[in-house]
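Annotators were shown the component list below and the corresponding predicted structure, then asked to write short factual statements about the assembly.
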Amino acid sequence: MSQLTRTALAIDRELLEKFDGWMAGRGYTNRSEAVRDLIRSALVEAEWEDPAAEVMATLSIVYDHERHELAQQLTQLQHADHHAILCSQHVHIDDHNCLEAIIMQGTAAQLRRIADAITSTRGVRGGKLTLLSRSI
Ligand code: NI
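Structure shown to annotators:
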């Protein structure tokens, strides 16, 4: 961990009270830690604005495995980009539904393309792409 530097912020009371409420609701007990996490989150989003940036991501999807050829299609999509897909975890939610978490590494453009292709496959009930950084 790099050395900590102290800084001061000027912020209006009402906004700070809202922030403290937000923090408390998420389990933060330390304002500095909450601010650091928000800064990191903003920096990760900024990093992703460069299509060539080397980044990481997790894509979570839910789908019905009984839907015709869907599981096979999803496997094919992942094989087509096997260099970017580090691993995936499959959970059988109930008799019909599956949850899959796919961990990826590559350029921002590549990971968005893969996530879009998987999420837009007919039968996938939405996906959530979590943007991550290798260094922030
Ligand atoms: Ni399953």
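Statements collected:
1. Residues 31-48 form the longest helix (18 residues).
2. The first strand starts at residue 54 and ends at 64.
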